[in-house]
């Protein structure tokens, strides 16, 4: 007893000392004002927060989230009411509303005033009907049955719309679970990653909404009824994500395929068939999400405020329609110090906002906590609307907001779906209608939508087709010519087929010429462990031409079926499997090529180094004498990426003996460094030879500073030095003018010349940041799948790279506590260390606790004017390689 009293005394003494040490976070929007509303000991280790209709603050006080030995606080969590009765801006009356739960994460008030509370394993409803600040009823809404017990990867993220409750469920460490509604409805699963579910307000009519998350910890609806979520903490695969949630959506993450998120069957950015990407990356550990339109830039835009526990910030995201989904403009509204750890965020009816602040980085209970009050422009904000549904569909109106609200919120029985879709004014409206059409759209019309370039529209069509067709219809259908349609139908078949039908269908899918269709079959085989296909996969791994991603998919499927291992094991052992393939003397040459490429890129991904032990110099030297020209060229490319003195020496020997190595020597030429005198001299000698290698050497010498003796050497061989310099003297020309000249030269375009331009680090510079089929940098988008893109669109993306930046590749301006300011794209996060890639494709690391400020940039890392150094023929060669390579 004495020891417990001593612990309590020390605990309370520490709280008293802290009172004078509270650092005010910096408010970066002049319209906002922030004050301290409550602090320890009045509130400790808070999680969720909510505000009732009277403007009183309800806050969860956690006492079960990793309590330390000897913890002196209550044995269970409690919900407390914080009331400012004297209107001085500080809570002065604090009462306990409820206690007895554990791992309590989130809560939200429904329209009737009842409070819905999410713990790790339950959602329950508290209702105070007599106004005595005690719940008169405690009703179980949702029950999660599982062995999972980690505090904050269970149930969370509550939002209401159309008399339904939407909630998130984290990855649950991949354990099996049963989710039970109040009417006995059961949804089972395990290993698929996090999910979003929905149910009636009483817990009945439970259904799955979307899957493929890490932990959808916060949910909110925008002003027209679109559901938005934050996905908290992707382990190795940053950034955390702001997502547009749609019915039937798959956001790509599979816990069963490993925590790192690098498995070939796992997507984080919508890069795999059937998966959807993100609106924006967010700050580390996003925990609370609130729609707050008072800070919106215009009446049609919804603004979402997101708390970033790890970045010590509150960030704003303005939703901008982009096709059938959104992109976001972001900015930091509030930035605190190391002890500002915002979790929950909620608004009162008058627009005043409140933040719960965990304060410390420690996950263990520590006795500190704060609640912050935020006002807008020194006065009340607006009352959030309740998403009331429109009374009829505005078929003849062109107002985007009115039509989108109707598409999302109007009762389906009151919508003429064919007419509404035909008159839709936006892709976003059209996709919402298609998802809700419930079999009222003809399969032929939906099938045509599968060819749309917008992934959210294609997903809407797949979702609707699942309600209108059966597996017999699909198996009897002739394969469409459009590969996007074939891919969509293949994914639908997997969801509908019984085992015999699946086998027949898969064999046809594996024969398809489109890599995405084959990928669907491979994932199907691997995840279902269909052993009858193993001989075919092993044979095709060594016999068919394929992209790097497809090769990894074959390898992963074989590993999952032959070894009966979970995907997480493959994720850890991928480089080992690739190394074994390279060391096997029986490996076919085409397999060697792709294994060389994939081992290096996988190691670069995992270790930020391209020199995996399996790619040792002895192996490279042996493979240089391989009978396959393709293998030799790939070895040269591997050595080129090493950048070591030993690899450079080998490459110089290849160049000196270029007649023996043929085309592979050109790959060695672009690896030479003109700033090194010896290598520069070798390049000059090749230029002076005026043969098939000279053009590549000239491109590699771009912008080199020559000595007078070197200039004289060029003149003696009748090489005009200005011809070597000519690219750097080029003036900027308009895109339309260039397009005409480039298209005229497409007839003479050469894929091999374009490839060498792409990988030349001084001329094309593309591979510094971009990969193709597993070779290249990791800062920019993968360019492996540009087949069919128009010249005009591709040229615009290169000449104007900032016009549209994918959320995954948004650059950040980072200022650290040591005063350094750097710009880069976030590549990965391991523990507290974030790794970024800069404009040169080089990586640098930052501890996120050292970040003073972090701002998203609207300017791409890719500099404009890259093509100004190239002739029209060289640009035509480059485009031809990107679009038409074998």
Notes on the structure:
The protein has 886 residues and is an alpha+beta fold. It contains 27 helices and 35 strands. The strands form 8 sheets. A 6-stranded antiparallel beta sheet has the order 7-8-9-10-13-14, with no helix packed on it. Strand 26 (342-347) and strand 27 form a beta hairpin. The protein is globular and about 100 Å long. The termini are far apart. Residues 1-20, 380-384 and 727-734 have low confidence and may be disordered.
Topology:
Elements: H1 2-18, E1 26-27, E2 32-39, E3 46-51, E4 57-61, E5 77-83, E6 93-101, E7 104-109, E8 115-119, E9 122-127, E10 137-146, E11 155-161, E12 164-169, E13 177-181, E14 186-189, E15 194-200, E16 207-213, E17 216-221, E18 227-231, E19 240-245, E20 249-250, E21 280-282, E22 286-291, E23 303-308, E24 313-322, E25 325-335, E26 342-347, E27 353-357, E28 370-376, H2 400-409, H3 417-423, H4 427-436, H5 443-449, H6 455-465, H7 471-476, H8 483-496, H9 499-510, H10 515-528, H11 534-543, H12 548-562, H13 567-583, H14 589-607, H15 617-624, H16 629-642, H17 645-656, H18 658-661, H19 663-669, H20 677-689, H21 694-700, H22 708-716, H23 721-725, H24 735-744, H25 751-759, E29 771-772, E30 775-776, H26 791-799, E31 812-816, E32 821-830, E33 833-837, E34 843-847, E35 851-856, H27 872-884
Helix pairs in contact: 2-4, 3-4, 4-6, 5-6, 6-8, 8-10, 9-10, 10-12, 11-12, 12-13, 13-14, 14-16, 16-17, 16-19, 17-19, 20-21, 24-27, 25-27
């Amino acid at each position: 007893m004495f020891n417990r009293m001593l612990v309590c005394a020390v605990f309370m003494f520490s709280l008293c000392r802290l009172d004078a040490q509270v650092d005010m976070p910096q408010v970066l929007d002049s319209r906002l004002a922030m004050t301290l509303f409550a602090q320890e000991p009045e509130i400790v280790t808070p999680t969720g927060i909510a505000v009732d209709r009277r403007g009183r603050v309800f806050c969860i006080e956690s006492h079960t989230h990793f309590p330390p030995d000897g913890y002196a606080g209550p044995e269970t969590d409690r919900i407390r009411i914080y009331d400012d009765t004297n209107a001085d801006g500080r809570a002065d009356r604090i009462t306990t509303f409820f206690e007895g739960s554990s791992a309590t994460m989130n809560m939200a008030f429904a329209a009737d005033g009842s409070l819905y509370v999410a713990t790790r394993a339950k959602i329950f409803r508290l209702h105070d009907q007599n106004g005595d600040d005690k719940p008169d009823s405690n009703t179980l809404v949702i029950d999660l049955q599982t062995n999972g017990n980690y505090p904050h990867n269970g149930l969370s993220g509550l939002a209401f719309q159309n008399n339904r409750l939407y909630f998130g469920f984290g990855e649950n460490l991949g354990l099996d679970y049963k989710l039970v509604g109040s009417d006995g409805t059961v949804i089972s699963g395990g290993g698929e990653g996090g999910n979003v579910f929905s149910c009636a307000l009483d817990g009945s009519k439970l259904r799955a909404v979307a899957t493929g998350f890490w932990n959808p910890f916060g949910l909110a609806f925008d002003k027209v009824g679109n559901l938005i979520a934050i996905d908290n903490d992707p382990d190795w695969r940053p950034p955390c994500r702001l997502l547009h949630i749609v019915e039937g959506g798959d956001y790509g993450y599979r816990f069963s395929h490993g925590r790192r998120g690098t498995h070939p069957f796992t997507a984080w950015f919508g890069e795999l068939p059937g998966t959807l990407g993100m609106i924006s990356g967010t700050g580390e550990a996003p925990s609370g999400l609130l729609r707050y339109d008072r800070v919106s830039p215009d009446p049609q835009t919804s603004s979402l405020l997101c708390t970033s526990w790890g970045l010590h910030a509150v960030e704003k995201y303005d939703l901008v329609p982009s096709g059938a989904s959104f992109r976001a403009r972001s900015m930091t509204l509030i930035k605190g110090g190391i002890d500002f750890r915002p979790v929950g965020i909620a608004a009162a009816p008058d627009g005043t906002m409140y933040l719960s602040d965990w304060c410390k980085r420690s996950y263990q209970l520590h006795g500190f906590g704060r609640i912050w009050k935020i006002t807008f422009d020194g006065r009340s904000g607006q009352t959030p609307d309740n998403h009331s549904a429109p009374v009829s569909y505005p078929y003849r109106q062109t107002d985007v907001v009115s039509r989108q609200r109707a598409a999302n919120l109007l009762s389906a029985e009151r919508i003429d779906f064919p007419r509404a879709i035909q008159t839709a004014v936006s892709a976003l409206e059209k996709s919402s209608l298609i998802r809700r059409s419930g079999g009222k759209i003809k399969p032929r019309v939906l099938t045509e939508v599968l060819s749309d370039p917008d992934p959210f529209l294609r997903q809407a069509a797949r979702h609707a087709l699942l309600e209108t067709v059966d597996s017999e219809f699909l198996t009897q259908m002739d394969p469409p010519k459009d590969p996007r349609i074939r891919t969509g139908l293949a994914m639908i078949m997997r969801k509908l087929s019984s085992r015999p039908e699946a086998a027949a269908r898969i064999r046809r899918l594996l024969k398809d010429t489109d890599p995405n269709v084959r990928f669907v079959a491979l994932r199907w085989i691997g995840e279902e462990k269909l052993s009858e296909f193993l001989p075919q996969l092993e044979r095709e791994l060594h016999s068919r031409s394929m992209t790097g991603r497809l090769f990894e998919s074959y390898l992963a499927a074989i590993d999952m079926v032959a070894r009966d291992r979970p995907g997480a094991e493959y994720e850890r052992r991928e480089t080992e499997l690739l190394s074994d393939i390279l060391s096997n003397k029986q490996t076919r040459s085409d397999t060697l090529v792709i294994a060389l490429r994939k081992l290096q890129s996988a190691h670069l991904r995992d270790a930020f180094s391209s020199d995996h032990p399996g790619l040792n110099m002895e192996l490279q030297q042996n493979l240089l004498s391989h009978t396959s020209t393709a293998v030799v060229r790939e070895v040269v490319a591997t050595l080129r990426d090493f950048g070591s003195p030993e690899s450079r020496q080998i490459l110089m020997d290849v160049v000196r003996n270029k007649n023996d190595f043929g085309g592979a020597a050109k790959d060695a030429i672009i690896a030479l460094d003109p700033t090194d005198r010896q290598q520069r001299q070798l390049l000059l000698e090749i230029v002076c030879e005026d043969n098939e290698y000279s053009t590549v050497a000239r491109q590699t010498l771009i912008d080199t500073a020559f000595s007078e003796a070197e200039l004289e050497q060029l003149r003696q061989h009748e090489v005009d030095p200005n011809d070597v310099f000519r690219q750097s003297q080029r003036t900027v020309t308009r895109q339309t003018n260039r397009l005409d000249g480039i298209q005229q030269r497409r007839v003479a375009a050469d894929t091999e010349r374009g490839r060498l331009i792409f990988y030349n680090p001084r001329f094309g510079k593309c591979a510094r940041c971009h990969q193709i089929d597993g070779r290249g940098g990791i800062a920019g988008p993968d360019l492996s799948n540009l087949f069919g893109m128009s010249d005009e669109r591709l040229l615009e993306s290169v000449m104007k790279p900032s016009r549209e930046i994918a959320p995954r590749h948004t650059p950040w301006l980072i200022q650290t506590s040591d005063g350094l300011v750097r710009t880069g794209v976030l590549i990965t996060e391991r523990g507290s260390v974030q790794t970024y890639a800069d404009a040169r494709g080089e990586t640098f690391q930052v501890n996120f606790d050292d970040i003073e400020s972090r701002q998203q940039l609207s300017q791409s890392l890719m500099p404009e004017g890259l093509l100004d150094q190239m002739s029209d023929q060289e640009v035509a060669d480059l485009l031809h390689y990107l679009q038409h390579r074998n």
